[in-house]
Design brief:
By secondary structure, the protein is α/β, with parallel strands linked by helices. It is 66% helix and 7% strand. The longest helix is centred in the C-terminal third of the chain and has 35 residues, at 559-593. It is globular, with a radius of gyration of 27 Å.
């Protein structure tokens, strides 16, 4: 069987995109938010959690599958969904470009540009890219629905939009873009047919078509509710038993006990913050990482808007509206860089068309200088590749300067699994929860009670290795200065004790400095459970080892609640299955488009 050239070229681009994101995942340091999002998935499937207080569950389930396939939590394994779906997005970029412009040259260029997008590669962490993959697949089917009014397309669009939402609720900001685009199309169609002199039977046919489309949209909304129902059921059962809901329902919707998340409220939306973020698109990392994508993406958006083809204009409007919602609404609330990988993703779709339009203009404008036109495309590709190379030059050193990675690697190479590791409380607890998740670690504030716990623990005492990790002088070790100062006095007292009673064996240097001390302690092995029960980060027991300690632990009691809980898990597992099968659908769509 002969493989079409289109499939071969795009597979090569996919492999390139996957390799670049894999390399980036190995070197990029881990931030405080990603520590949370990589610890919550650890063993979440075996723990049987319908959702979490922090985020919707689909990404966490996919990540936990990655942990099970690769043998545990590492920098690469925690980023595996984003690596895979980020690379797979290059195929969707090609498909959508073809749907809008029907120009293979432009589509190949768009796909290639996103494959090497410096911004997308640098910020391919957390769940954003995975959520945006499903959102992009939804947009593809929605554009087809606008063009063909095939109801199957709107159902598929709703399905994948919902998967995006249950991966990360941030995708909800795109919903108004869908609604406005559909209303624009409906209004244009209604206006067009109203001002034409047509037969009555034709008008009846149009009214029937509009009625059928409206019914399809209502059914698609019901499908959305079904797909995200695990989160709704989780919040219902949690609220019924404990009077609380997850972060989004509590902080953004005002439902449930707000005291649980006190201090974690989102910033209020402001015009100045929104405009500041918009300006940063042209002065911040976006142009530095993706200058060609930004430049020709804007050219392509303008060209798409100016085209006389209605379907292209509608698709352009839809993408412009999603960008507007992301930049002006979300940009006015938060500035996390991973949230904005949607920008190079969308601009890449239009950049290929923008380059083709620019080349055609140069061909017409400089007919007497064919060499200039001939090398234009080569220059664009070379400059884009050079830009990506510069980004990797910045990425590679990040691993050596990351204190979390430095601690984890030291533990893996030097600390036995049966040791007890005490951490200076001046070290941010997310850092040691991530770096020592597989060890019997103890935050320093619990250490004064350890002797008492040893006396109460059953079993004969053993000589157990004891390590103490101190936050070195002159650093904040991951804390904000005010939080560091709050815990400083106790941390210094505890460190003084270990300096006197243990031997200094190592000094670890990253952005921050850590000093390692070693001693031993007489304790029964049963003390491990007492220590491990203290392991918690961001409302969640680390590794879900003691699920009863989770702040959102609930028990479905009535027959109805148990049945509802069971339905929630059934839908959740179905969501996971559809997510895992979605790459097959993408390759199927690609096969239909191939020559």
């Amino acid at each position: 069987m002969k493989i079409p050239k289109t499939v071969i070229y795009l597979l090569l681009i996919f492999i390139l995109a996957f390799a670049l994101r894999l390399i980036s995942a190995y070197y990029v340091d881990i931030g405080s938010d990603e520590m949370i999002y990589s610890l919550i998935p650890l063993n979440i499937i075996s723990a049987g959690r319908l959702s979490t207080v922090e985020q919707a569950p689909l990404y966490f389930y996919l990540t936990d599958l990655g942990y099970k396939l690769t043998g545990g939590l590492t920098l690469v394994s925690t980023r595996l969904p984003s690596i895979f779906f980020g690379a797979l997005a290059v195929l969707l970029v090609f498909l959508i470009s073809q749907e809008l412009f029907e120009n293979k040259k432009a589509s190949y260029l768009s796909s290639f540009l996103f494959a090497i997008s410096g911004y997308a590669i640098r910020n391919n962490q957390e769940m954003d890219m995975t959520a945006y993959f499903f959102a992009l697949l939804s947009v593809f089917f929605f554009i087809q629905f606008l063009n063909k009014e095939n109801h199957k397309q709107i159902y598929l669009s709703a399905l994948f939009l919902s998967l995006g939402v249950i991966t990360k609720p941030i995708v909800l900001v795109f919903v108004p873009a869908y609604a406005v685009t559909w209303l624009i199309k409906w209004s244009a169609s209604h206006y067009h047919h109203h001002h034409q002199h047509q037969e009555q039977t034709r008008n009846l046919s149009i009214n029937k078509s509009n009625k059928n489309s409206s019914s399809a949209i209502i059914l698609s909304l019901l499908l959305c509710l079904l797909i995200v129902s695990p989160v709704l059921i989780y919040n219902y059962l949690l609220f019924k038993e404990k009077g609380m809901t997850d972060y989004y329902f509590t902080v953004l919707a005002g439902v449930g006990n707000g005291g649980v998340y006190q201090g974690q409220e989102a910033n209020p939306w402001t015009v100045s913050r929104s405009l500041g973020f918009f300006w940063s698109m042209f002065t911040g990392p976006q142009p530095r990482y993706d200058f060609m994508i930004l430049l020709f993406g804007l050219v392509g958006l303008f060209a798409g808007w100016k085209t006389g083809k209605a379907s292209t204009k509608q698709g352009t409007v839809l993408f412009l509206l999603t960008l507007a919602m992301l930049v002006f609404y979300l940009g006015g609330i938060m500035g996390s860089s991973t949230h904005y990988v949607w920008i190079p993703l969308v601009l890449s779709i239009f950049a290929g068309y923008g380059i083709v339009q620019a080349q055609e203009y140069l061909t017409t404008r400089f007919q007497s200088k064919p060499a200039l036109v001939k090398h234009f495309l080569t220059a664009i590709i070379l400059l884009s590749v050079m830009n990506t190379a510069i980004v990797f030059h910045e990425i590679v050193p990040l691993k050596k300067t990351s204190f979390a990675i430095t601690l984890q690697e030291y533990a893996q190479e030097n600390i036995a699994q049966d040791a007890i590791v005490v951490l200076d409380p001046r070290i941010y607890r997310g850092v040691f929860a991530w770096a020592f998740h597989d060890w019997h670690y103890l935050e320093g504030t619990y250490f004064p009670k350890l002797t008492e716990a040893i006396q109460k623990s059953p079993g004969p005492k053993q000589n157990i290795p004891l390590y103490y990790i101190e936050c070195g002088p002159g650093t904040f070790c991951g804390w904000k200065p005010e939080d560091f100062n709050r815990i400083y006095d106790f941390g210094e007292q505890l460190s003084t004790v270990f300096r006197q009673q243990a031997s200094k064996i190592a000094e670890l240097n990253a952005i921050d400095t850590f000093i390692v001390y070693k001693s031993s302690i007489a304790a029964p092995f049963s003390i491990y459970e007492t220590i491990d029960r203290t392991h918690s980060h961001w409302y969640t027991p680390v590794g879900w080892k003691y699920t009863e300690n989770a702040v959102d632990n609930y028990t479905a009691k009535t027959v109805f609640d148990k049945a509802l809980n069971g339905v929630g898990f059934f839908i959740l597992y179905l969501d996971v299955l559809i997510a895992l099968l979605s790459p097959v659908l993408v390759f199927f769509l690609l096969g239909k488009r191939s020559d």
